[in-house]
Specification:
The structure is a homodimer. By secondary structure, chain A is of the alpha/beta class.
Chain lengths: 352, 352
């Protein structure tokens, strides 16, 4: 370990660094964990980021969500994925200047503290450690590290997360199926399954979703859907039916269409709630701000484009909102955040 | 074992029986299993049922839902609870003429066959065995064994189940939370929790549900609700909040009121779907038929009476529908069904 790393508060006065210093960005999701290792370039701001970004190495491991796998396995996975990224990049633990971890399941300050505590057991005190919800890393993956604007994530689950220029943050939705995230992939598919059951038992109109979904699941009758949902409570398994719902809506099925329209309203509402609370749109409502769009539900579809409809809906209220579809993955967003935080500390040091 | 029991097809020609012959009625729920042992009285029809019914003994055990506890434990529990009821009544296995089991989770003919197979391992072939969904036992508990009309069960879950005079059956809802049973106790409480989260993150209006529910759960902020719902996925734990929702509605909270109004619509719709499919209301829509009301959600509350509102809603469409709140428990309903089935076989035997 180099001497320069032994002093916890030391930051290079010019915002620069040793040539072999690195930063780790980690995206800890419910299904997998991705770590990227990037060099700590002598940057002053994110205006002069190299394009493409220099990524020394990338490593992938299983889930590090402590709610799913427990604390001990989560810590082991994190240590393993970081070790692998360092090894692949020809670097080592002593070259690490900062780590930023974006983790799903960080909903409360106590979650953050617990994870920081584990990380501190791995890294010496001079290494800068940042732990946030994975939504922050997703925002940074769209804004290239700049903490301003709103991110909307709609995959299996959904969440809207935002940051204002003066450092305030807000979130909406992201509470899971029990607490009504109806714009999520799970929410869309659960509504479609419900529509099939209702058509079958006489509570609702017939829909093309019935044939489409039964075929997708290799079932012969809607009665069998009950057993199918009970057999495995995984939300991702249900959310996987979203393309079938989109396909039915594209073919003109009114029930499928209505489910997607409702999902668009829900997703746009969660963005609006964040924009409103943070006044991202300014006093007159016309300020410009980015809306980073992440997740399978928002990816461009052929006919029925959920992401485009959400943006249209947001535009009606906030003409200054501009959509960004990230070109880098959330783990890179996490690395950019770490970079960004280090630069800010360097500036503070420089100005003091 | 008496000789009269060794002939599988033997039924007493006068519909009568030995003095010590008994029938077992079992209500197999998700949380507990109840078995009652009743004497096989020489009845011709259910018009001359003794009041009160003679119940020789009652025994209670844990869950026998094979989805929850597995097949082996389910069978052990059933055998134990029946053995205990027989022992308490001073009877024994050889005195059993018929068993009727009403089990939650019987949604498909294969479920029925599997359970009949287990029961057949316990009882010799001359004992009549009947396995049905618990909704059928609940219907029988209201109609005193007569298979005609509709039953609406709304506890943690909800289901509507009906039988026509010509022997057709139909069900609606009862598919669980994923498939949208929004009139159930779980559904009502999940909507209330969602309303609290939406008020907190700016997607919905403020509601008295926030203070009421946080107090009930000893939480300090709606943020903590996410962790609370993830900590234990039990539906009953969520459904236990229904009295708080009713209480807020009674105090004039519009959000709570709207949740209950929607639940009433959902429950009434599930009854209507069954009535329509079975033509229980007759060609002119005015025929008389019973609607048996079962479960905590439908019990009379002080101000906001969900069960009464459901009946009002059904009455508007079907003036001949009359509500019955059962005076006996579902296990007795199951015993009455067994009785009823035996009598029918006896009549067939008599007429042939």
């Amino acid at each position: 370990m180099k001497n320069s790393h032994l002093n916890g508060d030391e930051v290079h006065e010019n915002g620069g660094c040793d040539n072999d210093d690195v930063v780790l960005g980690v995206d800890g999701g419910t299904t997998s964990t991705v770590c990227v290792c990037v060099p700590l370039l002598p940057l002053i701001s994110n205006q002069n980021l190299p394009n493409p970004l220099p990524i020394l190495a990338r490593a992938v491991a299983g889930s590090s969500n402590h709610n799913s796998v427990g604390e001990s396995a989560s810590k082991d996975t994190l240590e393993k994925v970081m070790s692998e990224a360092l090894s692949k990049s020809g670097s080592n633990w002593s070259a690490v200047r900062a780590v930023c971890l974006g983790v799903s399941g960080v909903n409360h300050p106590t979650d953050q503290e617990r994870i920081l505590h584990w990380l501190r057991e791995i890294f010496p005190s001079h290494v800068k450690l940042y732990v946030h919800n994975d939504a922050l890393a997703a925002l940074a993956s769209g804004t290239m590290g700049k903490l301003h604007g709103c991110v909307l994530i709609a995959g299996t689950g959904s969440i809207s997360y935002g940051f204002s220029k003066d450092g305030r943050e807000a979130r909406a939705a992201g509470a899971g199926p029990v607490l009504g995230d109806w714009g999520s992939g799970y929410g869309i598919a659960a509504q479609a399954l419900t529509a099939v059951v209702r058509a079958h038992d006489g509570r609702g109109p017939q829909t093309a979703l019935t044939d489409r979904i039964l075929k997708a699941l290799s079932l012969s009758s809607p009665d069998e859907l009950i057993g199918w949902t009970y057999a495995d409570p995984s939300w991702a398994r249900i959310a996987a039916l979203v393309p079938d719902v989109v396909s039915c809506a594209e073919s003109g099925d009114q029930i499928a269409h209505k489910i997607l329209v409702d999902a668009v309203q829900e997703l746009a509402l969660s963005v609006k709630a964040v924009v409103q609370r943070l006044s991202l749109c300014g006093a007159d409502g016309n300020d410009s701000f980015p809306v980073v769009m992440v997740g399978g539900v928002l990816e461009a579809n052929k006919g029925w484009d959920i992401g485009k409809e959400v943006i249209n809906c947001i535009h009606k209220h906030y003409p200054g909102a501009y959509p960004i579809r990230p070109e880098v993955e959330p783990a890179v967003g996490a690395a950019l955040l770490a970079w960004n935080f280090l630069m800010k500390e360097s500036e503070r040091h420089h100005n003091s």
